[in-house]
Amino acid sequence: MVQVGVVYHSISGSCKALAEAVAEGVNNEPGCKGITLVIEGKDIHQGRFDNPALMTHLDQCEAVVLGSPTFMGAVSAQFKAFMDAASERYSNRSWLDKLAAGFTVGGNSSGDQLGTIRTLQIFAAQMGMLWVPIDILPSQDPKGRNRSGCQSGLVTVAESAGGIHELDRLTASHLGNRVAHLASRISRL
Question: InterPro entries in the record, alphabetically (predicted)?
Fold first, then answer.
């Protein structure tokens, strides 16, 4: 069974909804299992993320999808604490050659969400991971997915009360399925 970890931080529920949609897409790929892993404030002590069980789950995954809300043009402080805690895996190259992808949600359509995606990409590169972009061309999908037009990762805008737009949910599911499909192909090599 190919496992894909979807690790995320959510404040209003929008990132949680995207993470669940990504995991749904993973689970639609035969032989693959999506696992959502939430970064919570209770796991941060004196600014340092500490959740060994979550990290062990990610160690066992063939791919990791990273999700954070965009705060001030970058990942949330809670997500950054998780990234910093992964430094042991960086030194040991524990996540080398795992697939990675990312998603974010911002408060408006020009909320500098690409800064968050770039932060996630750089983190993945430092970890030696292989980044999976969105393969849906903007404005050319008959279903209307990837409505933000970002190829690097899923960029969305929060709807009221922590919701997400249905097309963003469909794009998140597609991204999860794409990562799972590629991880499955690689595992058969």
Answer: Flavodoxin/NO_synth (IPR008254), Flavoprotein-like_sf (IPR029039), FMN_Rdtase-like_dom (IPR005025)
